[in-house]
Amino acid sequence: MDAMTQTAPHAPPSDPRQALAFRHVSKHFLRGDGSSLEVLRDVGFDVPAGSVVSILGPSGSGKSTLLNMAAGLLLPDDGRVLVLGHETSGTVDWSRLGYMFQDDRLLPWRTAVDNVGLALETGSMGKRERRERAQAQLAVVGLGEFGSSYPHQLSGGMRSRVALARSLVTEPDILLMDEPFSRLDAQTRTTMHTELLRIHRERGMSIVFVTHDVEEAVILADRIVMFSPRPGRVHTELSVDLAHPRLGTPEALTLVAELRAAIAGMSADWVI
Prior knowledge:
Shape: globular
Largest sheet: 7 strands, mixed
Oligomer: single chain
Mean pLDDT: 87
């Protein structure tokens, strides 16, 4: 099977097997001068349950806006966003989603274990159980011995691991990730990719990973949804059929080159 199978942009019917579904989604924001900024236009695609889907696009193409709509933080101006078959404007069990932001957003006065446990504090779980679950999740990301450490005592990669543990401690069915490793050095970033794929294999949750880095999308994703420059639209959807690990393999390098060529032909506004 080819490493890359291209399909035309589409918005297929609702399917209960889809973790997320975007149906003709558009979004505008009001500028300070009163004018309207069109961020997304008629976006439609699905995230199959258990898959890793990367949204690849240039800065300003609405990737984070779309992720925020999936998380229920924003509503579309037009179209529909469905989470596990339910519209975000209706009743959604938000505990089934985890969100990892670009910044780690760790509270400096809390230890690592308390930062992870923060995600559990909105429910009725007791303090002891929260702490035990948070500590167990730190162990999953390789930081079992650092639960009592404060953020300033941790490296950038360790802080990212704490943020990942916090996103996973509620055991979500869907994990939303907004360029979470973009500020890490290359070696640490590679380590985080490996860890994320390992956890995905173990837990089988659906992952939506936003990035503007072509190589990162190829390394991680089962499917790549490539956005055009603003207003963001689905330019191309690609199924990636490559075995892991992919970093540095001839097949992955070929796919990266093909994607870069497609981007170069799309717009000079996309800085690779």
